[in-house]
Amino acid sequence: MERVQVTLTELKRASDDVQQMTATRLAQKGSGIFVSSHEMLGAITEEHVELIAAVTSRSHMRESAIRHELIGIAVSCIIALASYETGAVEW
User: Fold this and answer.
1) What is the 3-state secondary structure (H, E, C) of the chain?
2) pLDDT at position 91 over 90
3) Which sign, positive or negative, has the C-alpha torsion 30, 32, 33, 38?
């Protein structure tokens, strides 16, 4: 079975949504970096656990919850990577 191919439009929408949620999270929590690899892992793991809950849910809101948690993982990863790029993360 051939997989459906993602389009540039879909990639742009996903990227735009991640950028918007990143800006929202920074506005809410400030732009301080993750200070350690353990903090990065904790934030990403928390989002992953929430994704597992969304995927296994029987809620009528399941699809929107999955999408929301995928965005949350992407945001946490971007902030973690940006934190790494500062050179100030304690490993």
Assistant:
1) CCCCCCCHHHHHHHHHHHHHHHHHHHHHHCCCCCCEHHHHHHHHHHHHHHHHHHHHCCCCCHHHHHHHHHHHHHHHHHHHHHHHHCCCCEC
2) no
3) negative
CA distance to 3, 4, 10, 14, 77, per residue, from 7 (Å): 12, 9, 5, 11, 23
Q: Tens digits of per-residue pLDDT, 67-82? A: 999 999 999 999 999 9
**Residue 91 to residue 74: CA distance in whole angstroms:** 21
pLDDT of residue 59: 87
The one-letter amino acid code at 75 reads V
